[in-house]
C-alpha cells in the first residue's frame, strides 16, 4: 500500500463507519443496548482510523483540485463544503455523546445523539460521494 491508495481506503472506512452507525441505530431501536454499544464503538474506531489515514494522505499529497466544470463543479463544492463543516462539528458532538453514554446519563446521551447520528451519517456518506466524484468519475 502506498499514499495513492489512501483515498480509496478512506472511502471504504467512511462507508464502513456509515454502515456501523446504521446498524448501531437499528440495534438501539430494537432495545439491544449491548449490540448498540458495540456497533457505535466500532464506528468510533473506524472513524478514528479514517481520520489518521486522511491526515497522512493530505500531509503527503496535499489537496486535489476537482477537475469538473459547470453545474457538477457547483454540486461537488456544495457537497464538499457541507461535508467539511459538518465533519469538524461531528468530532466534538461524538465526543460529548460518548461521554454522556459512558457516564450513563442516557437522557442527555439521547438528546445529543439525535443530532450527532444524522450529522455523522451525512459526513460518512458524503465522504464516499466526494471520493467517487473526485477520484472515479472525474479522475484525470
Explain what you see:
This protein is an all-alpha fold. The protein has one domain: Cytochrome c oxidase, subunit III, four-helix bundle (Four Helix Bundle (Hemerythrin (Met), subunit A), Up-down Bundle), CATH 1.20.120.80. Helices cover 84% and strands 0% of the residues. The chain contains 4 helices and no strands. α1 runs antiparallel to α2 (33-61). The longest helix is centred in the middle third of the chain and has 32 residues, at 71-102. It is elongated, with a radius of gyration of 16 Å. The mean pLDDT is 96.
Quick structural gist:
With 140 residues, this protein is mainly α. It has helices spanning 6-29, 33-61, 71-102, 106-137.
CATH topology: Four Helix Bundle (Hemerythrin (Met), subunit A)
Q: Structural class of the secondary structure composition?
A: mainly alpha
DSSP strand (E) fraction?
A: under 5%
**What is the overall number of helices?**
4
Q: Can you tell me the CATH class?
A: Mainly Alpha
Q: How many E-type strands?
A: 0
Main sheet overview: none
Q: Assign the CATH superfamily.
A: Cytochrome c oxidase, subunit III, four-helix bundle
Radius of gyration: 16 Å
Count of the separate structural domains: 1
Order of helix and strand elements from N to C terminus: HHHH
| N-to-C span | 21 Å
CATH architecture: Up-down Bundle
Shape: elongated
- Helical percent range? over 70%
Overall mean pLDDT stands at: 96
Uncertain runs are: none
Amino acid at each position: 500500500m502506498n499514499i495513492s491508495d489512501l483515498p480509496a481506503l478512506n472511502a471504504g472506512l467512511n462507508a464502513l463507519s456509515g454502515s456501523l452507525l446504521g446498524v448501531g441505530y437499528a440495534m438501539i431501536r430494537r432495545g439491544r443496548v449491548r449490540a448498540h454499544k458495540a456497533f457505535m464503538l466500532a464506528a468510533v474506531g473506524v472513524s478514528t482510523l479514517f481520520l489518521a489515514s486522511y491526515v497522512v494522505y493530505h500531509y503527503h499529497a496535499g489537496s486535489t483540485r476537482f477537475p469538473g466544470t459547470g453545474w457538477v463543479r457547483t454540486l461537488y463544492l456544495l457537497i464538499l463544503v457541507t461535508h467539511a463543516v459538518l465533519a469538524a462539528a461531528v468530532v466534538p458532538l461524538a465526543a460529548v455523546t460518548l461521554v454522556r453514554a459512558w457516564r450513563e446519563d442516557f437522557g442527555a446521551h439521547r438528546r445529543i445523539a439525535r443530532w450527532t447520528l444524522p450529522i455523522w451519517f451525512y459526513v460518512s456518506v458524503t465522504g464516499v460521494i466526494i471520493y467517487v466524484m473526485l477520484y472515479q468519475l472525474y479522475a484525470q
